[in-house]
Amino acid sequence: MIKSELIAIIAENNPHLYQRDVERIVTTIFDEISDALARGDRVELRGFGAFSTKERAARVGRNPRTGEAVQVDKKYVPYFKCGKDLRDRLNTDA
Amino acid sequence: MAEAVYQQVGLSRNESADHVEAILSEISDRLVAGETVKISSFGSLQVRQKTGRIGRNPKTGEEVPINPRRVLVFRASHVLKDKINKGNGGA
């Protein structure tokens, strides 16, 4: 399922809403998560899971083509931890 | 989250909360059905099947079987990765 399909399904279940509003709801949710992660905050969605960032230390990498050493700066990577309810569902409804 | 939707979309707080709930539950249902869910400029959630293996309790050294199971993997889009490193990068 992609974002536009998700919007279509939610719009279908809510005939009183404009598609435009449903689009804005879905976009707001993911923008909100993104903004929080950019601030370094963790976002917990009960029953679903939690989004957070993890720090990756700076290191000396190597250009695999030339073998040349390159400095790789410290960075943050997004991380998702599945919530318990969803994890249980993944392993029972299968 | 519902608060953000309330402010952005102008629906009531209750209705906003219901929609957030409905969207997450739709995503969950798809994942449980084994589908991959892709949200452009955010990332994708995918279900992976893990095989069973023999694990070991690191404290006691005791062998424990780990059953085959399904796990959820999140792959962030480049847009999200870039945004996160711009946000923290200056620090």
Task: Please explain how this structure is put together.
The complex is a heterodimer of chains A (94) and B (91). Chain A has 94 residues and is an alpha+beta fold. Chain A contains three helices and five strands. In chain A, the strands form two sheets. A three-stranded antiparallel β-sheet of chain A has the order 1-2-5. In chain A, a hairpin with a 3-residue loop joins strand 1 and strand 2. In chain A, helix 1 (3-13) crosses helix 2 (19-38). The longest helix of chain A has 20 residues, at 19-38. The two termini of chain A are 18 Å apart. Chain B has 91 residues and is an alpha+beta fold. Chain B is built from three helices and five strands. Chain B has helices spanning 2-9, 13-32, 78-89, and strands spanning 37-39, 43-50, 53-56, 63-66, 69-76. A three-stranded antiparallel β-sheet of chain B has the order 1-2-5. Chain B has a two-stranded antiparallel ribbon with strand order 3-4. In chain B, helix 1 packs across helix 2 (13-32). The two termini of chain B are 26 Å apart. The mean pLDDT of chain B is 91. The chains are: A alpha+beta (94), B alpha+beta (91). At the A-B interface, helix 1, helix 2, strand 2, strand 5 and helix 3 of A face helix 1, helix 2, strand 1, strand 2 and strand 5 of B.
